From TrEMBL:
Alphabetically ordered keywords of this record: DNA-binding, Transcription, Transcription regulation
Domain of life: Bacteria
Designated name of the protein: Peptidase S24-like
Species annotation: Chitinophaga rupis
Domain HTH cro/C1-type intervals: 9-36
Amino acid sequence: MTLLLGDILKIVRTAIGDTQDELADKLGIVRGTYSSDERKARPGKKHSSIEFYEKYKDVFGIDLYQSVNMQRIVIVDPTKLSWGIIVKLIEVGAFIAVIPIFEILATASTIPLYQDAKHAQPIFSLPIEMYPHAEFGMFVKGNSMEPAIYEGDYVICGPRLTSKDIKNGHVYLVGTDDDENTIKILNLDKKKKLLSLIPTNPEWKKKDIAVEKVRYIHKVIALHRKEEGINKHTKPI
């Protein structure tokens, strides 16, 4: 089934929860103009004004031209919509064309996770070309991984993994049933089904948890130092 421009507009509007009047108002156009696009637009057909495409991208962070060409909704700026709306769009096949970076969620200590990434709001993004296999980034709080990772650094994480994918001695972001969200070196004991969370700071002790208590695992694939500035130097993990 071909995804028409009008289909894309309807899907996004439904996810946002706006009426045509409300959405047209956000775009600064009259309802009739917007309504016409939802009803009649076809692949490759241009809006009466190219400004519509640019305005839509500026307001909602979605590139309509790429979306029609790729036949899926292309999100180019995830800071324009709430993360809850973006999750709804992802569930119907939307693609985030950048790497969203979240506020302090990852912790290099053992504080509880106060906000699940699915309901957080990214504060900026990086070009996907920087890390083609990355899924998201998070700022770090805590000192258990010093001197490898400092508070205020942010880490780039790959796709979600299972315990079978763990390579002992590598750094991962781990979420547990206890709502702990932590960055540690992992060692997996397959026989005992135990996962050791190992800090690099000697003042911290390692922690063993049952594999069954792990909710998610993401490999940390790169690190940006706080003092080196966002979008600048990186250090592979």
